[in-house]
Amino acid sequence: MSEQTENFIPYVRDTYSEEEMKVRSQSFYEFMDKRRTVREFSDKPVPREVIDHIIMTASTAPSGAHKQPWTFCVVSNPEVKKKIREAAEAEEEVNYNGRMSDEWLKDLEPFATNEHKPFLEIAPYLIVVFKRVFETEEEHKKKNNYYVNESVGLAGGFLLAAIHHAGLVALTHTPSPMNFLSNLLDRPANERAFLLIPVGYPADNPTVPDLTRKGKEDVIVYYD
Ligand code: IYR
Protein backbone atom coordinates (compact mmCIF):
# COMPACT_ATOMS: atom_id res chain seq x y z
CA MET A 1 0.00 0.00 0.00
CA SER A 2 1.31 3.47 -0.86
CA GLU A 3 2.33 5.83 1.89
CA GLN A 4 -0.60 8.12 1.16
CA THR A 5 -3.25 5.51 1.84
CA GLU A 6 -1.71 4.05 4.97
CA ASN A 7 -4.01 5.94 7.29
CA PHE A 8 -7.08 5.40 5.14
CA ILE A 9 -9.85 3.07 6.28
CA PRO A 10 -12.66 1.44 4.28
CA TYR A 11 -15.66 3.71 3.77
CA VAL A 12 -18.81 1.98 4.92
CA ARG A 13 -22.19 3.29 3.83
CA ASP A 14 -25.83 2.29 3.48
CA THR A 15 -26.80 1.45 -0.10
CA TYR A 16 -30.19 1.66 -1.80
CA SER A 17 -31.73 0.56 -5.07
CA GLU A 18 -32.54 3.28 -7.61
CA GLU A 19 -36.19 2.98 -6.67
CA GLU A 20 -35.39 3.39 -2.98
CA MET A 21 -33.16 6.37 -3.79
CA LYS A 22 -35.99 8.09 -5.63
CA VAL A 23 -38.38 7.58 -2.76
CA ARG A 24 -35.83 8.57 -0.10
CA SER A 25 -34.61 11.68 -1.92
CA GLN A 26 -38.16 12.87 -2.53
CA SER A 27 -39.34 12.24 0.99
CA PHE A 28 -36.26 13.98 2.44
CA TYR A 29 -36.89 16.96 0.18
CA GLU A 30 -40.53 17.08 1.28
CA PHE A 31 -39.45 16.85 4.91
CA MET A 32 -36.87 19.63 4.58
CA ASP A 33 -39.33 21.77 2.64
CA LYS A 34 -41.48 21.86 5.80
CA ARG A 35 -38.71 23.65 7.73
CA ARG A 36 -39.59 27.25 8.46
CA THR A 37 -37.87 29.98 10.37
CA VAL A 38 -40.09 30.63 13.38
CA ARG A 39 -39.97 33.81 15.42
CA GLU A 40 -42.48 32.89 18.12
CA PHE A 41 -41.09 30.49 20.71
CA SER A 42 -42.47 28.64 23.72
CA ASP A 43 -40.40 28.67 26.91
CA LYS A 44 -41.03 24.91 27.34
CA PRO A 45 -37.74 23.23 28.32
CA VAL A 46 -35.92 21.01 25.84
CA PRO A 47 -33.80 18.08 27.11
CA ARG A 48 -30.12 18.92 27.01
CA GLU A 49 -29.43 15.55 25.38
CA VAL A 50 -31.39 16.72 22.34
CA ILE A 51 -29.24 19.84 22.12
CA ASP A 52 -26.09 17.72 22.39
CA HIS A 53 -27.26 15.47 19.54
CA ILE A 54 -28.19 18.44 17.35
CA ILE A 55 -24.82 20.08 17.86
CA MET A 56 -22.88 16.88 17.33
CA THR A 57 -24.79 16.49 14.04
CA ALA A 58 -23.67 20.00 13.04
CA SER A 59 -20.14 19.03 13.93
CA THR A 60 -20.23 16.21 11.33
CA ALA A 61 -20.12 18.87 8.57
CA PRO A 62 -17.14 18.82 6.22
CA SER A 63 -14.49 21.46 6.88
CA GLY A 64 -11.28 22.73 5.29
CA ALA A 65 -8.50 20.24 6.12
CA HIS A 66 -10.89 18.77 8.68
CA LYS A 67 -10.04 21.56 11.08
CA GLN A 68 -13.67 21.72 12.33
CA PRO A 69 -13.25 25.45 12.95
CA TRP A 70 -16.35 25.93 15.11
CA THR A 71 -17.44 26.29 18.73
CA PHE A 72 -21.10 26.07 19.74
CA CYS A 73 -21.96 28.01 22.88
CA VAL A 74 -25.29 27.01 24.41
CA VAL A 75 -26.92 29.65 26.57
CA SER A 76 -29.82 28.77 28.88
CA ASN A 77 -28.91 31.03 31.83
CA PRO A 78 -31.74 33.63 32.03
CA GLU A 79 -29.41 36.45 33.04
CA VAL A 80 -27.04 35.80 30.15
CA LYS A 81 -29.99 35.54 27.74
CA LYS A 82 -31.28 38.88 29.03
CA LYS A 83 -27.89 40.52 28.47
CA ILE A 84 -27.72 39.07 24.95
CA ARG A 85 -31.22 40.37 24.21
CA GLU A 86 -30.41 43.85 25.50
CA ALA A 87 -27.18 44.06 23.49
CA ALA A 88 -28.80 42.67 20.31
CA GLU A 89 -31.73 45.07 20.61
CA ALA A 90 -29.37 48.01 21.09
CA GLU A 91 -27.61 47.14 17.80
CA GLU A 92 -30.86 46.47 15.97
CA GLU A 93 -32.30 49.78 17.16
CA VAL A 94 -29.49 51.49 15.25
CA ASN A 95 -29.91 49.11 12.27
CA TYR A 96 -33.62 49.79 11.86
CA ASN A 97 -33.22 53.53 12.40
CA GLY A 98 -30.54 54.45 9.89
CA ARG A 99 -27.94 51.74 9.43
CA MET A 100 -30.06 49.67 7.01
CA SER A 101 -30.90 51.15 3.60
CA ASP A 102 -34.48 51.93 2.54
CA GLU A 103 -34.26 49.05 0.05
CA TRP A 104 -33.22 46.68 2.82
CA LEU A 105 -36.03 47.82 5.12
CA LYS A 106 -38.53 47.36 2.26
CA ASP A 107 -37.19 43.85 1.55
CA LEU A 108 -37.78 42.96 5.21
CA GLU A 109 -41.37 44.22 5.31
CA PRO A 110 -42.92 40.81 4.46
CA PHE A 111 -41.21 39.35 7.53
CA ALA A 112 -42.49 42.01 9.94
CA THR A 113 -39.19 42.07 11.80
CA ASN A 114 -38.18 44.97 14.03
CA GLU A 115 -35.64 45.81 16.70
CA HIS A 116 -37.52 43.94 19.42
CA LYS A 117 -36.13 40.44 20.03
CA PRO A 118 -38.17 38.84 22.85
CA PHE A 119 -37.34 35.37 21.51
CA LEU A 120 -33.80 35.83 22.82
CA GLU A 121 -35.20 35.51 26.35
CA ILE A 122 -38.13 33.16 25.67
CA ALA A 123 -36.44 30.32 23.76
CA PRO A 124 -34.96 27.82 26.23
CA TYR A 125 -31.63 27.70 24.43
CA LEU A 126 -29.61 30.14 22.37
CA ILE A 127 -26.96 28.39 20.31
CA VAL A 128 -24.22 30.85 19.44
CA VAL A 129 -22.06 29.52 16.63
CA PHE A 130 -18.52 30.87 16.69
CA LYS A 131 -16.05 30.50 13.84
CA ARG A 132 -12.49 29.80 14.85
CA VAL A 133 -10.36 31.91 12.56
CA PHE A 134 -7.13 30.31 13.81
CA GLU A 135 -5.91 28.00 16.55
CA THR A 136 -3.28 28.70 19.18
CA GLU A 137 -1.48 25.53 20.17
CA GLU A 138 1.34 27.13 22.04
CA GLU A 139 1.52 30.67 23.24
CA HIS A 140 2.17 33.15 20.39
CA LYS A 141 2.00 30.35 17.81
CA LYS A 142 -0.93 30.56 15.40
CA LYS A 143 -2.11 27.54 13.38
CA ASN A 144 -4.23 28.14 10.30
CA ASN A 145 -7.79 27.08 9.65
CA TYR A 146 -9.01 27.00 6.05
CA TYR A 147 -12.26 27.99 4.31
CA VAL A 148 -13.61 28.97 7.69
CA ASN A 149 -16.76 30.75 6.47
CA GLU A 150 -17.68 27.91 4.12
CA SER A 151 -17.03 25.30 6.81
CA VAL A 152 -19.01 27.05 9.54
CA GLY A 153 -21.80 27.88 7.07
CA LEU A 154 -22.10 24.18 6.27
CA ALA A 155 -22.14 23.30 9.97
CA GLY A 156 -24.89 25.89 10.45
CA GLY A 157 -26.94 24.20 7.72
CA PHE A 158 -26.48 20.81 9.32
CA LEU A 159 -27.51 22.35 12.65
CA LEU A 160 -30.77 23.72 11.23
CA ALA A 161 -31.54 20.37 9.56
CA ALA A 162 -30.92 18.53 12.85
CA ILE A 163 -33.14 20.96 14.77
CA HIS A 164 -35.92 20.40 12.22
CA HIS A 165 -35.43 16.64 12.33
CA ALA A 166 -35.79 16.69 16.14
CA GLY A 167 -39.16 18.44 15.75
CA LEU A 168 -37.98 21.76 17.16
CA VAL A 169 -37.81 25.19 15.54
CA ALA A 170 -35.05 27.75 15.12
CA LEU A 171 -34.47 31.29 14.03
CA THR A 172 -31.26 32.11 12.19
CA HIS A 173 -30.55 35.44 13.80
CA THR A 174 -27.64 37.63 12.73
CA PRO A 175 -27.65 40.73 14.89
CA SER A 176 -24.96 42.93 13.53
CA PRO A 177 -22.38 43.74 14.52
CA MET A 178 -22.13 40.62 16.65
CA ASN A 179 -18.94 41.24 18.60
CA PHE A 180 -20.93 41.84 21.80
CA LEU A 181 -21.38 38.04 21.93
CA SER A 182 -17.62 37.49 22.29
CA ASN A 183 -17.57 39.87 25.22
CA LEU A 184 -20.70 38.57 26.95
CA LEU A 185 -19.62 34.93 26.58
CA ASP A 186 -15.98 35.68 27.29
CA ARG A 187 -14.73 33.95 24.14
CA PRO A 188 -11.04 33.80 23.21
CA ALA A 189 -9.47 36.06 20.56
CA ASN A 190 -9.46 33.34 17.86
CA GLU A 191 -13.28 33.08 17.86
CA ARG A 192 -15.78 35.34 16.09
CA ALA A 193 -19.56 35.11 16.44
CA PHE A 194 -21.09 33.72 13.23
CA LEU A 195 -24.76 32.91 13.94
CA LEU A 196 -27.11 33.28 16.91
CA ILE A 197 -29.77 30.58 16.82
CA PRO A 198 -32.61 30.44 19.36
CA VAL A 199 -33.92 26.86 19.55
CA GLY A 200 -37.04 25.44 21.15
CA TYR A 201 -40.66 24.52 20.68
CA PRO A 202 -42.81 26.98 18.77
CA ALA A 203 -45.36 29.07 20.69
CA ASP A 204 -48.98 27.88 20.47
CA ASN A 205 -50.38 28.47 16.98
CA PRO A 206 -47.38 30.31 15.56
CA THR A 207 -47.65 32.04 12.20
CA VAL A 208 -44.98 32.37 9.51
CA PRO A 209 -44.86 34.54 6.39
CA ASP A 210 -46.73 33.10 3.40
CA LEU A 211 -43.67 32.37 1.24
CA THR A 212 -43.04 30.13 -1.72
CA ARG A 213 -39.65 28.68 -2.62
CA LYS A 214 -37.98 28.87 -6.00
CA GLY A 215 -38.79 25.91 -8.25
CA LYS A 216 -36.27 23.60 -9.85
CA GLU A 217 -36.32 25.54 -13.11
CA ASP A 218 -35.09 28.59 -11.17
CA VAL A 219 -32.34 26.97 -9.14
CA ILE A 220 -30.96 24.13 -11.29
CA VAL A 221 -29.01 24.43 -14.54
CA TYR A 222 -28.07 21.10 -16.11
CA TYR A 223 -25.16 20.85 -18.57
CA ASP A 224 -25.70 17.42 -20.19
N1 IYR B 1 -30.53 41.72 11.66
C1 IYR B 1 -31.84 42.36 11.65
C2 IYR B 1 -32.38 42.57 10.29
C3 IYR B 1 -32.65 41.39 9.44
C4 IYR B 1 -31.94 41.24 8.28
C5 IYR B 1 -32.23 40.21 7.43
I1 IYR B 1 -31.26 40.07 5.64
C6 IYR B 1 -33.23 39.28 7.75
O1 IYR B 1 -33.52 38.23 6.88
C7 IYR B 1 -33.95 39.44 8.90
C8 IYR B 1 -33.64 40.49 9.79
C9 IYR B 1 -32.81 41.59 12.54
O2 IYR B 1 -32.46 40.52 13.01
O3 IYR B 1 -33.91 42.06 12.78
From TrEMBL:
Organism in which the protein naturally occurs: Microscilla marina ATCC 23134
PANTHER family, sorted: IODOTYROSINE DEIODINASE 1, NADPH NITROREDUCTASE
Taxonomic classification: Bacteria, Pseudomonadati, Bacteroidota, Cytophagia, Cytophagales
Ranges for domain Nitroreductase: 34-201
Keyword Flavoprotein: yes
Name listed for the protein in its UniProt record: Iodotyrosine dehalogenase protein
Gene Ontology molecular function terms on file: oxidoreductase activity
InterPro entries: Nitroreductase, Nitroreductase-like, Nitroreductase/BluB
Entry-linked Pfam families: Nitroreductase
CDD domains: iodotyrosine_dehalogenase
Keyword terms: Flavoprotein, FMN, Oxidoreductase
Keyword check for Nucleus: no
